[in-house]
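Hey forum,

I'm writing up a methods section and want to include a predicted complex as supplementary material. The small molecule is pyridoxal-5'-phosphate. I've pasted the protein sequence and the SMILES. Can someone with a working setup run it? I'll credit the forum in the acknowledgements.
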Amino acid sequence: MPDKDKIGYRPTWAEVNLNNLEHNFREVKSLLPGEVKVLVTVKADAYGHGLIAVSKRLSACGVDYLGVASIDEGIKLRKAGVKTPILLLGLILKEDIQPLFTYRLTPTICDRQMAWALNAKAGALGKPIRLHIKVDTGMGRIGVLHNGAFKLVKDIHKFKNIIIEGIFTHFASADIDRKFTICQINLFEKLVGNLRESGIVIPLVHTANSIGLIDYKDSHFTMVRPGLVIYGLHPRESLGVNLKPVLALKTRVVFIKQVGAGYSVSYGRTYVTKRPARIVTLPIGYGDGYPRNLSNLAPLLIAGRRFRISGRICMDQIMVDAGNLGPKIGDEVVLIGSQGRQKITAEELADLSGTISYEIVCGLGSRIPRIYIS
Ligand SMILES: *Cc1c(COP(=O)(O)O)cnc(C)c1O
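Reply by user p_vandermeer:
Happy to help. Structure tokens for the complex are below, copy them as they are.
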């Protein structure tokens, strides 16, 4: 049990194994030709793993770029002393460009208006700005539509105070639709080729997220952008890559009571004991981002055995029918991770919850302290 001065007095915490994070990073690097650069996405608090600790460890391992969603995430990194280049994967408003210069953040743009604003600001400050241009080849989200991209890049290339450092696109369906993904790669490749022929060579050309990186070798270009696999999570089954899980979610038994058969547990009385049982209460709930639709479904590990949540998940507490088994107050309980020979993955919880592993780990709330193992 970790230090209470650091993590507080509620015995619920997430362990983040930075050695495993490093292992995954090196594993991913080993799949790539040496000259391909790696941007790791650390948006959404590094997928719930902790923005600063994760970014510092990756920087120490030589990650080339960090990807965040917003200016605020970038500022947090700079204030924590992270020196690695930072790409804003999301868009910003024109009125918010000052921090890009103050904190050396690389913006993503997809239109001329923003290029104008950045060029003017960079001119006024006497400091050219590096940026990446986002192209939509089929995601239908941000990005200039692919058929207008050539012209846009040519125009932005003319701005004196702008350095086009990167160009990128994003896969919509790489996990399930090979044909569409290859079509996206071809559109992008053709664009980059046309630009090159017209004399515009952009150093960082990137499109591969985790699944792209593993399943589409010709999507690597000069940089890749994995997130999920770096956190040891699998974008699909049997990846053929040796990943180690980074995050474990744990709590401890705070209460146990003996009840008779036919006793109901939690709101709505959806669980009723079939025989006399010991009901265990654990201090974690949907207020921590543990999905309420896992009520009566999610497995958890106590004393090396698998149990299932009994009744509805409350905001701050969950209950487990432990039958006639005898967990004790203070026993460690694993909600994600392993105990003895048993294991529960974020992927398993995601399946039960009808979502993806990304949402399970990103959803873990700030009320859960992160304990770093390194
Ligand atoms: C989050 C994100 C990624 C990483 O995706 P994973 O599936 O986690 O590897 C890559 N590119 C962009 C633009 C993203 O927003």
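Some notes you might quote in the supplement: The longest strand covers residues 129-136. The CA atoms of residues 176 and 213 lie 14 Å apart.
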